[in-house]
Amino acid sequence: MFARARKGGLGYGEVKKDLLARMLDFFGPMRERREELAARIDDVEDILEDGARRARMLGEPVLAAAREATGLGRAL
Fold first, then answer.
1. Given this model, what pLDDT does residue 32 score?
2. Which DSSP state fits 71?
3. How far are the Cα atoms of 25, 32, 53, 55, 64 from residue 58, in angstroms, in the given order?
């Protein structure tokens, strides 16, 4: 394609069509995966909730230590 562009005769429309075909090929598997996940929204929500729970569990001690170190602990 680069050689044709340098030589001349390669149209803008042809380049756009080629780019679209390449993009559809590249993103095709990701689009399929998204459709699969959209069909299982309850499972996705469960996974997200579990991840949030685990993140809070890991983050709470770190946040508490940071608050203690900076003197910004919560007033009780």
1. 97
2. T
3. 39, 33, 9, 5, 11
Q: What percentage of the chain carries pLDDT values higher than 90?
A: 72
- CA 71 centroid distance within chain: 36
Give the pLDDT score at 74: 67
**Domain range for 64:** 40-69
Reported pTM:
0.56
Question: Are 20 and 32 part of one and the same domain?
Answer: yes
Residue 30's contacts (CB-CB under 8 Å, 6 or more residues apart) are none
What's the mean pLDDT in 34-63? 96
State the CB neighbour count (10 A cutoff) for residue 21: 10
Please report whether residue 76 resides in a domain: no
